[in-house]
Amino acid sequence: MHRKDVASRSIASKVGSAALYIALSVIAILQIIPLVWLLFFSLKDSREIFDLPPLALPRHPKWENYSDVWSAGNIDRYFLNSVFITAVSIVLTILLASFVTYAVTRMKWKLSSAVLGLFMIGLMIPVHSTLIPLFSFYQKLHLIDTPVSVILSYTAFNLPITIMIMLGFYTVLPREVEEAAIMDGCSVNRLFFQIIVPMTVSVVMTAAIINMIYNWNEFIFVNTFISSDSMKTLTVGVQNFVGQYQTNWGAIGATLMISIMPILIVFLLLSNRIVEGIAAGSVKG
Question: What is the DSSP letter of 74?
Answer without folding.
Answer: -
